Amino acid sequence: MVCASIVLLMIFVQVVGIPSSITPLHRIVAYSTNNQLSQQTTYDIVQHPLPHGSTEPWWLATDRAGRVWFVQQGSNQLGMLNPQTNNITEYSIPSPNSTAISIAVDQSGNVWFTELTTNKLGELKNGSSSIVEYKIPGAPYQVAGQTQFLSCGPTGVVPDSSGHIWVLCEFSNQIDEFFPSTGIFLNFVLPVYQSAPAGLVFDGQGGFWFTAADADMLGHGIISQLQNGTSDGITEFAPVNQTYSFTINHALGPLGPYENLTSSLPTPSGIAIAPDGVTLWISEHVDSSFDSYNTKTKSLTRYWTSKTNNAFGYPVSFPNGLAIDSTGNVWIAEHYGNKIAEFNPNTDQLIEYIVPCCGVNGAAGTYTLALGKGGTVWFVEIFGNAIGELKPAPANQTFSMTLGSSSVDLSSSASINIPVNISVGGVGAINMNATLDISGISASGNLTAASALFSPSRFEINGIGNSSSQLILKMDGLGTGIYYLTVSATVSPQNVIYSQILKLTVSSYFSPVAYGVVIGIVASVLVIVFLAFRMGRRRRFSSSRRRKRARFLESSRRL
Quick check: is 437 in a domain? Predict the structure, then answer.
C-alpha cells in the first residue's frame, strides 16, 4: 500500500449571482410509441451558460439536495449549479492545468473529481470551501529489465456505499480503491494490457463491472478477492454477438507480442446496470450504437441511435454518458450526435432531444449526463460552455409512431412492406413536419447490404391528425443474423426524433437458379458415383473370370 501525499490549499470561492436562462428554448413532447399509449412526458430544454468566460464543462453529477456539480476543464474550475436559484458557484482547482475530467458525489455529499494531467484526486467536503488534492500513485513496470513508472491518468471516479472512492487509471491500467479516512490507495492491476478502463458500476452483489475501451472488452471484479498490486479477482472478456463480430490486434505487453481477439464491443465507454441487477447497458464511443449485455446468459444486443446525417458535422453520434432511471429507461448523451436520448427497453422506443447550440447547426458537445430530482436530466455542453437541463413540464400535445410489425423475418435477398403510422393529438396542437429515416447495421447507422424506402418519407400534420407511410425494406445480400434497426421520425419545429426498434432476422437464401445449379451438381455427382460403381463391379467381375479361367487351364495341364 502506498500512502498518498495530501495537499491542502484554501481557495477563493466565487459566488456568481448570474441567473441562468430559465425561459424554455423548446417545449418537447415525448409520447409512448407502443400500440398501447400509456405514458406521456413533456420536456423543456433550459440552458445555463457558464459565467465569466468559464469554459468546457466536461462531466457532471448531482447530489441529494438536487444541486449539480461539474468540472470545467478549460477554466480549471469546479462548478455548482443550484436549481432553486439558478446561480452558479465556482471553485478554483489548486493545481494549474489539471485537466479535470470526471466528478462524483458520495453519500455524505462530498464531491470527488479526477485530474488527468496532474494525476490527482480532488475532494471538496460537504459544506466546505477548501479543495483537497491527493496524489494518485500509478504503477511501476518492467521493460527490458529496466523499471519504468506509469502515471495513473485518472479518467473516472466512482464512490461506493461504504465511502471508499474508486478511481479508473487509463495510463497505468489499474483500478484503484482510495480510503478517505487514511489517505491510502490500493492498486488493482487489470489482467489485459492497455485496457483503458472508462466506466464502472457496482452490481450490489459484492462486485463491479467496468468497460475496457482500448481492449474492446468488459471487465468484472469480485471485491472480496481483490489483492493489492495484483489482478486477483478481476477478469476481462470480449462479448461476442455473431451478427456483429470483428477482430482486433491487441498488444499483450509494452513490447508485444500481439494477439488477435474477437469482439462485438467497439470502444465501450459508459456503463450502467438495470434495476433487474442482470442487464448492463453500455455506450460505444466510436460508433452510433449502444448495447445491452445480460450477465447471466452472456448475450449482447446492439442498438443504434438515429442517423446524424452529418447535421452537426459528424457521421456518427458517439454515445457516451449513460444513466438508468428508476423505471428502467436508459438515458444516453450523444457526444457528436448533439442529442440526449431516452430508450425504453420495455417498448423498444427511442426518443432523442436535439440540443440547440452555438448558431446554425452548431454542436453543443453533449458528452455526459446525470439524473436529478423530479425526473430532470442534466447534461454538459462542452462546446456551448453551458449546463443543459431537460426539465419535465405540463403537456399539451401528444405524438406517437407505430409500426405494422415490430419483428420481421427475411432472407438475404428479399423485401417486405411495413406500415408506419403517425398520430398527433392533444389540446392546442401546432402544425408540424415529420421526416422518416432508418438506421442500423453499419457503424454510422447507414444501411449496408440492405436498402429502405419510405413512401412518403416526409409529410405535414396540421394540428391534430393521423398520417401513414410504407417502409419498403429490401435485403441485398445482408449476412444472416439478427439486426435491430431504428425507424425514426424527426419532428420539427419541436426538434425531437421519435424512433421504434424493428427486429430483423435474416436467414440464408438460394435463388431458383442457385437451387438449379446445386441440384445439377448433386445429380452429376450421383451419376458419376453410379457409373464408377458399375465400372468397378465390371472390373471386379472380369478379373474374377480371368482368375477362374487361369485356374481351370492350370488344372487341365496337370491332368
Answer: yes
